[in-house]
Amino acid sequence: MGNVARAGSLEAANKKLVAEFMEVFSTGNVEAILGYLAPTATWWVAGTIDGISGTKNKQEFREMLSGLSANTKTGAIALTPIAWTAEDDRVAVETESYSEMNNGRVYNNLYHFVFEVRDGLIQSVKEFLDTEHTRAVFL
Asked: Where in this chain does the record put each SnoaL-like domain (predicted)?
């Protein structure tokens, strides 16, 4: 029973960290967002969208975030978690985004994120999303 209780508290702590991360992400404060990522963290985005898809290290993710934020009226893309699954060091979150863009379009996408959390920091993120919606809004 002790291992189950410890695992439950680890999963709850990881879920809390990811929830806080999503709140901070929604502010558009790039440096605060990056503060949740381990120095060697990676962020992978599905699809074949130039400048967005593929695996990025922390510095490349900083550059992508800064570029995306610059295209929004508020400087941020708001993330709203819908459903959670947490097991060991993995947190999976179904999420909805919303942002009004400088180009007059609305970015309102659905995602499935998989976060790997270790030592209180996000080690990796996999982002599955509607790439056609992203392409239509940003490009």
From this structure: 18-123
